[in-house]
């Protein structure tokens, strides 16, 4: 480094300090030494580091710099690009018609859009789809003709693939359309226009081959998806920063806008509810998600109106368990549901479902805490909160301890962690006053009766444990809750079996509802081939 703004070996007599590395290793033999007779003082002060090729230009040599933390992106071959023309990229004297930096698919779409504007094509009209398909066919055919005339450096690898993808990008949901239709895909993640990942139930998870052209393509696709989501009533609004919406198929959409993400790209997650919608606990038994004994017990708990928390990691089937358990409630009960995005499906006649609303200049925000705080004004017999994550935790605990029973879900690594995390969230969310730990311990233990934990491994979802919450035995100051393990799964491929213990507090509620707890659990143990613990 020569100590001047421009490298002396490139010429120039600037005396300002150099901010870039130069070609000459160690010393600059022409100007720096020629003018001063010695290396520049700036060079003497620079610590020695090995010379490496510049990342932006391998021909330039400079001092090594720390590598970026961003993972290297795998360069993918464009499947729409065919083999280059042998003997040259174009006919002599013929102008090149394709921009080298633009993929064939993107250029075909651009030309179709330009022609649609020239023709003043109304894409909402009755004949719009037929006219748009005709324009795509014409532009694909024109590309092949230009290639034969020597005006294109390469032909289309698969003309039908170009037609199909161009149609999706212009009239459908682009790269997301086949993923939304694929029942094997349950999660779609977009980190950048060229970084689309999927999670599958049975197939291989990872990169998705079909990607977006640029950020504008992502924005255009999401705008159309939200416009078509008639039940969501949400619009793409960068001012919100974070947005949640539900598609008409039931899929949940989460959007992180560009000014919030690190690299300036939209971050998108789509959680799908794939396969056959589960309606009853018996269907979960058929899928080996839980045992028949556990299903009988949860059915009895729902009839006895025991408040239940469903815990697990994201994608562990918590909402599915909640909906199937809620389906076992007495149809005469009134159920009130509050969610950020409509997910829970309660197939009962008297159900009032609400979702949050983002703030806008013409309307106030309605958050989940406000919805939960208004539960008691809606005369609920059962209160359901889709997921507890923040300030809604304390109002929910207060509601469940007031005589109204209910269900909710929470992210936790185990059934015991669900209780401690619920207490922790309630403690953090209550900023207006400082609730003592003893009060929160009593509140959680009184409000929650049953905790069900589930997990996902190797594409399978299973219930791993069920426990009953008891009255605090060690006093309100104790940090651990008093619980009775009811069902456990010792190994992932093992059975979910009864522990042989009876819950003290839940027994009374089950008996009041007309169930014999011991007969209920022992019957399930006999069916599973295991007797009660001695």
UniProtKB/TrEMBL annotation:
Transmembrane segments: none annotated. GO terms for molecular function: ATP hydrolysis activity. InterPro entries: P-loop_NTPase (IPR027417), T2SS/T4SS_dom (IPR001482), T4SS_GSP_E_ATPase (IPR050921). It comes from the Bacteria. Pfam families: T2SSE. Residues 171-430 form the Bacterial type II secretion system protein E domain. Coiled coil: none annotated. Residues 31-107 are annotated as: Disordered. Belongs to the GSP E family. This is CpaF family protein.
């Amino acid at each position: 480094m020569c100590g001047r703004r421009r490298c002396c070996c490139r010429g120039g007599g600037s005396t300002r300090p150099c901010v870039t590395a130069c070609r000459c290793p160690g010393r600059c033999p022409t100007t720096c030494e020629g003018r001063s007779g010695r290396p520049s003082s700036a060079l003497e002060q620079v610590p020695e580091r090995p010379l490496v090729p510049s990342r932006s230009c391998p021909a330039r040599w400079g001092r090594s710099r720390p590598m970026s933390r961003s993972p290297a992106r795998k360069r993918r071959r464009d499947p729409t690009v065919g083999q280059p023309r042998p003997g040259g990229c174009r006919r002599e004297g013929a102008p090149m018609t394709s921009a080298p930096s633009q993929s064939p698919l993107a250029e075909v779409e651009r030309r179709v859009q330009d022609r649609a504007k020239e023709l003043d094509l109304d894409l909402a009209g009755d004949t719009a789809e037929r006219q748009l398909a005709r324009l795509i066919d014409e532009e694909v055919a024109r590309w092949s003709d230009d290639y034969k005339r020597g005006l294109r450096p390469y032909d289309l690898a698969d003309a039908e693939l170009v037609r199909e993808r161009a149609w999706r990008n212009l009239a459908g949901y682009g790269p997301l359309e086949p993923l939304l239709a694929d029942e094997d895909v349950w999660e779609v993640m977009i980190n950048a226009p060229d970084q689309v990942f999927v999670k599958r139930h049975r197939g291989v998870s990872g990169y998705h081959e079909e990607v977006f052209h640029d950020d504008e393509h992502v924005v255009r696709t999401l705008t159309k998806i939200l416009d078509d989501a008639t039940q969501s009533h949400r619009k793409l609004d960068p001012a919100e920063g974070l947005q949640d919406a539900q598609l008409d198929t039931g899929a949940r959409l989460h959007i992180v806008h560009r000014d919030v993400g690190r690299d300036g790209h939209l971050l998108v997650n789509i959680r799908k509810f794939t396969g056959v919608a589960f309606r009853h606990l018996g269907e979960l038994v058929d899928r080996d998600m839980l045992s028949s004994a556990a299903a009988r017990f949860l059915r009895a708990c729902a009839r006895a109106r025991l408040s239940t928390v469903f815990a697990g990691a994201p994608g562990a089937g918590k909402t599915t368990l909640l909906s199937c358990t809620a389906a076992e409630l007495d149809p005469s009960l009134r159920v009130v549901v509050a969610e950020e995005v409509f997910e829970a499906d309660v197939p009962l006649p008297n159900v009032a479902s609400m979702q949050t609303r983002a703030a806008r200049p013409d309307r106030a925000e309605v958050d989940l805490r406000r919805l939960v705080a208004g539960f008691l004004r809606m005369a609920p017999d059962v209160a359901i909160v889709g997921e507890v994550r923040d300030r809604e935790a304390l109002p929910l605990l207060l509601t469940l301890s007031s005589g109204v029973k209910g269900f909710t879900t929470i992210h936790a690594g185990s059934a015991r962690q669900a209780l401690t995390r619920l207490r922790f969230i309630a403690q953090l969310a209550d900023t207006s006053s400082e609730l003592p730990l003893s009060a929160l311990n009593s509140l959680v233990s009184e409000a929650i009766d049953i905790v069900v934990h589930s997990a996902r491994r190797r594409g399978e979802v299973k219930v791993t444990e069920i426990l009953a919450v008891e009255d605090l035995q060690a006093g309100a100051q104790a940090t651990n809750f008093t619980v009775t393990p009811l069902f456990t799964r010792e190994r992932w491929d093992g059975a979910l079996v009864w522990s042989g213990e009876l819950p003290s507090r839940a027994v009374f509620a089950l008996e009041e509802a007309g169930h014999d707890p011991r007969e209920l659990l022992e019957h399930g143990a006999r069916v599973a081939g295991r007797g009660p613990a001695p």
